Amino acid sequence: MSVSLRLSRGGSKKRPYYKIVVANSRAPRDGKYLEQVGTYNPLLAKDDENRVRFVDDRVRYWLGVGAQPTDRVARLLDKQGIKERAATSNPSKGEPGKKAKDRAEEKAAKAAEAAEAAAEA
């Protein structure tokens, strides 16, 4: 059985609250889990100490027996100093898509034509 550390959503509509749980990786997101090892409340300020809470020794135990954290939980663990996370780099993330580039080229061409027409008149 592969085990993962992941978020299980609670709270009402537009008021999320997450439990950090150890669950079978095939179980549904809010379904049955093995153990709750922390909480995450994204509505609290980033510097609030109650935003992310872990039971450190249980998290370390589950990581030691091979549980794999999801990306979001890995980020939270890295901020808490429990498990180091390798930095990722996506240099093309902020780059516009092909259609947006085409529109920008068309707009620049129209502006150049308008500038030429104004210069001739």
Automatic annotation (TrEMBL):
Residues 82-121 are annotated as: Disordered. SUPFAM superfamilies: Ribosomal protein S16 (SSF54565). Keywords: Ribonucleoprotein, Ribosomal protein. Gene3D superfamilies: 3.30.1320.10. The keyword Cell membrane does not apply. Coiled coil: none annotated. Residues 111-121 have a biased composition (Low complexity). One of its GO terms (cellular component) is cytoplasm. GO terms for molecular function: structural constituent of ribosome. One of its GO terms (biological process) is translation. Residues 95-110 have a biased composition (Basic and acidic residues). HAMAP family: Ribosomal_bS16. Belongs to the bacterial ribosomal protein bS16 family. This is Small ribosomal subunit protein bS16. The gene is rpsP.
